Description:
Pfam families: TPR_8. By secondary structure, the protein is mostly helical.
Amino acid sequence: MNIFKKLFGxxxxxxxxKQEENKNFDVLKYDGVRALRMQxxxxxxxxxxxxIELNADDLECRDYLSQAYxxxxxxxxxxxxxxxxxxxxxxxxxxxxxMAEVAYMMENYSxxxxxxxxxxxxxxxxxxxxxxxxxxxxxxxxxxxxxxxxTKAIELRADFDVARLLRGNVLLENKAIEEAAxxxxxxxxxxxxxxxxxLLKARVEKAKANLNExxxxxxxxxxxxxxxxxAYKERSEVRKSLGDIVGATxxxxxxxEMETATPQSSEGIEQKIKKKxxxxxxxxxxxxx
Length: 289
């Protein structure tokens, strides 16, 4: 009889322990989500780490942890969590694309390309996979394949303006000025006051030696964003070519003043991450930063 009581007692303790672990897991996960929404990223990460120790199979918790790590700039651990999710859900394209984004932020373009390839094997009509693949090729300096990937994305979705903007810039970088002009003109006509589009258009006009038009559009950039260092620098070059030495000097001095006032070294991790994601998605179509 004592033996049965001992066995029964052991089962009860085990059951109670499991219930307590489940309760603690729920509390930690809830606190982590709340901290994540309040941008208390370090505390959120700690909550999720302890929650996963209690339940390693909760993939949603790993996803939240990856978000906390990204916000902290701990990209390797963020990628590690996403990789664990992908191992459990090998057909989850959204996770693969997130992995590609994190690899992009780490500037690990070969890993990014591999992940994009896996995504396209699952869905060869996924425009975001082609777009990210193009970013990977561009990061590796392979401009022709970057253009090819972007063209496929645009063929699948004609209004994919983010891809068209990148293609215009890569074409210009690849000295294909007339082709770049087609993308620049298309975007300029259909997009209202977008700094990145205006810069592309100005650069194309500058490359075509349409200097008066280039100066006009650089001025539009500056009207839209008075703190665009690039626009001041490049307008200075155009004005110098036009013989406007006074205007060129003023632009150059203004650019130097802004660079001195906001040194790159003062940029925090969070701002660097946001900047990297902004480069990926300048229209903020896929991200809400």
